[in-house]
Write a structure and sequence with these properties.
Elements lengths: L29 H8 L3 H10 L6 E3 L2 E3 L2 H10 L2
Antiparallel strand pairs: 1-2
Organism: Salinactinospora qingdaonensis
Pfam family, one: HTH_17
Protein name: Helix-turn-helix domain-containing protein
Amino acid sequence: MTTPTTTGVGDEGSTSAVTRPHKAPSLWSVKDTAAFLGVPAKTLYQWRYLEVGPPSHRIGRHLRYDPAEVRAWVLRQP
């Protein structure tokens, strides 16, 4: 007994759908976030230390910002 195999997109007669990995929303770097806010990158690091800036996330050794969280933070500022 043999089982059908698929090798990817474009296989004629393939028996299963090709699944693509879910694309995660992109995150902003410190440089991207600083450009959006119009502040120096050093200010973002200081705000993070003082816990007063937009929410940030440590991904490995990198600091990243969720664009939606940054925009929401901006709207909450007086």
